[in-house]
Design goal:
The chain has helices spanning 8-23, 33-37, 39-61. By secondary structure, the chain is mostly helical. The mean pLDDT is 88.
Length: 62
């Protein structure tokens, strides 16, 4: 149960962890609605996120 005395960030973290425990998915997200609604926008976002993650990793390995 959420602690009502915790600050908003702590409450959000507790809620996110609860959802992860219940669903096995990050923040309880079980479907990617944007993927079905706007595939091009989804692919653009996915490509940017991947570049942000892979770019620094490749820099560190060289």
């Amino acid at each position: 149960m959420l602690d009502k005395t915790a600050n908003p960030l702590q409450r959000r973290l507790l809620e996110s962890e609860r959802l992860m425990e219940e669903t096995g998915c990050y923040d309880g997200i079980t479907e990617l609605r944007l993927r079905g609604q706007d595939p091009l926008k989804f692919e653009t976002l996915h490509t940017k996120l991947r570049a942000y993650c892979v770019g620094p990793e490749q820099k560190l390995s060289h």
